[in-house]
Design brief:
Elements (H helix, E strand, L loop, with lengths): L3 H22 L10 H30 L4 H48 L1
Length: 118
């Protein structure tokens, strides 16, 4: 049989190695870890950019084709629709990352509980 002292030392080294591996593989910055203000600014910029592109394209086409203000209205609506699609995609991404982080935390805590109960 092996020495219990050697087993304890091995368990400590193994736990330290696993912790290093987890911290090394952890992503640096995700949407879920962003502050509320950062997420809000990101969404606001996405909305402004999409609407600005729509308005710009609409104005340019109206000036070129002489259809003022119809293409401006159409492309402004398309820009707003694209902005809302981006907001929904960002919200789904934040929700998914938050659920994954919570699940990972639960998995880590349950594995720690199992190790200490042995």
């Amino acid at each position: 049989m092996t020495d219990p002292k050697q087993e304890d030392e091995f368990d400590k080294r193994l736990a330290a190695a696993r912790q290093r591996q987890v911290s090394k593989n952890r992503p640096k910055q995700s949407v879920a870890s962003m502050s509320g203000a950062a997420v809000g600014f990101r969404i606001a910029i996405e909305i402004l950019a999409a609407v600005a592109v729509g308005v710009g394209v609409g104005l340019a086409l109206d000036a070129w084709l002489g259809t003022k203000p119809w293409l401006l209205i159409v492309f402004c609506m398309l820009g707003f629709g694209g902005a809302m699609a981006n907001v929904m995609r960002t919200a789904r991404e934040i929700d998914r990352k938050t659920r994954e982080a919570k699940q990972a935390a639960l998995d880590d805590s349950s594995s720690t509980t199992r190790k200490t109960s042995r």
